[in-house]
């Protein structure tokens, strides 16, 4: 299936999925407002065995084709004994660029702009050399705890992974719901597995070209908006690249979710072990927890999301 959109059609689509003003003109939380206390309590009741599965990649300190700016990790104390009683210790320093293709991270709503504005119509002038003064990552300081749902798209298509550049369409998402016997709904954290890291482990970092990535087609935006999800995550970057239709717009899924809907994005989640456990248990819903760093005015945060069964 291939859909060709013009720039005007994409712009109209973005307007149709807008949540601007839905929670007031000053709102900076966006779709996180769908996660109520009752929603968190219901998510906690999904936990039966207590098994926890991390959805984070290790922080990558070595350069690779998909990691041109690796994490800087320096030791500043290495445990040398100097105390007369033998006491010693170790300490380190690290610096991270959270965005990109190598670090599991949460995008703040200020991370992406559309026609000079971020979520809820805040002007791009709210971002300066000090950071973002609206819609920064610290609006998530209370953490994201909700019901998580996994859609395993390679399982649905009967393949090992979705090839770079291949798009995922609304009918694929609905097929996942039928196969997994689960539905994505209001306040949920929806995770979409493409098998990207299985491909990387089999074929190496060069298997994914810098301009090609599996992901959602723009036609999924109205589906996501109708479901009222709170957060969207992927083992890729959610957008399919290249776009595959005639619209000179970078990353319409990023634009439609972060800017128009106020849906925070999780990029580069490690979903392989989660997919295995969901298949073994025959259960594709779980309690989801993510606690980003509280970086005031930050555009994103490295993250270690966890699924609890």
Describe the structure.
By secondary structure, this protein is α/β, with parallel strands linked by helices. It has two domains: 7-58 and 99-308, Glucose Oxidase, domain 1 (3-Layer(bba) Sandwich); 60-95, no CATH class. 22% of the residues lie in helices and 20% in strands. It contains eight helices and 15 strands. It has helices at 7-16, 37-44, 153-157, 170-180, 196-203, 221-227, 252-261, 272-281, and strands at residues 52-54, 72-78, 90-95, 105-107, 127-128, 131-132, 144-152, 167-168, 189-193, 215-216, 231-234, 264-267, 285-290, 300-302, 306-308. The strands form four sheets. The chain has a nine-stranded mixed sheet, with helices on both faces. Strand 5 (127-128) and strand 6 (131-132) form a beta hairpin. The radius of gyration is 20 Å and the shape is globular. The model has no long low-confidence stretch (mean pLDDT 93).
Fourth-level CATH superfamily of the largest domain: Putative cyclase
Number of helices: 8
Sheet with most strands: 9 strands, mixed
- Quote the distance from N terminus to C terminus: 36 Å
Total tally of structural domains: 2
Measured on Cα atoms, how large is the radius of gyration?
A: 20 Å
Oligomer: single chain
Overall number of strands: 15
What is the fold-level CATH name, i.e. the topology of the largest domain? Glucose Oxidase, domain 1
Mean pLDDT: 93
């Amino acid at each position: 299936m291939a859909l060709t959109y013009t720039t005007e059609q994409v712009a109209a689509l973005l307007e149709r999925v807008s949540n601007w003003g839905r929670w007031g003109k000053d709102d900076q939380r966006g779709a996180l407002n769908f996660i109520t206390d009752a929603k968190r309590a219901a998510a906690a009741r999904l936990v039966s065995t207590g098994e926890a599965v991390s959805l984070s990649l290790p922080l990558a300190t070595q350069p690779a084709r998909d990691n041109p700016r690796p994490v800087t990790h320096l030791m500043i104390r290495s445990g040398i004994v100097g105390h007369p009683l033998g006491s010693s210790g170790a300490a380190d320093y690290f610096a991270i660029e959270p965005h990109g293709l190598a670090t599991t991270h949460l995008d703040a709503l200020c991370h992406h702009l559309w026609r000079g504005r971020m979520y809820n119509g805040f002007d791009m002038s709210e971002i300066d050399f000090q950071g973002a003064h609206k819609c920064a990552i610290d609006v998530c300081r209370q953490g994201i705890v909700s019901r998580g749902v996994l859609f395993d798209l390679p399982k649905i298509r009967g393949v090992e992974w979705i090839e770079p550049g291949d798009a995922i369409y609304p009918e694929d998402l609905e097929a996942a719901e039928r196969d997994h016997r689960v539905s994505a709904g209001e306040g949920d954290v929806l995770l979409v597995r493409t098998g990207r890291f299985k491909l990387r482990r089999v074929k190496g970092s060069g298997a994914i070209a810098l301009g090609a990535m599996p992901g959602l087609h723009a036609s999924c935006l109205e589906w996501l908006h109708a479901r009222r999800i709170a957060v969207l995550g992927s083992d890729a970057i959610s957008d399919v690249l290249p776009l595959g239709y005639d619209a000179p717009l970078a990353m319409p899924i990023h634009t439609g979710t972060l800017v128009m809907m106020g849906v925070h994005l999780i990029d580069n989640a490690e979903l392989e072990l989660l997919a295995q456990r969901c298949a073994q248990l025959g259960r594709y819903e779980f309690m989801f927890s993510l606690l980003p760093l509280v970086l005031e005015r930050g555009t994103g945060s490295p993250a270690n999301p966890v699924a609890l069964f």
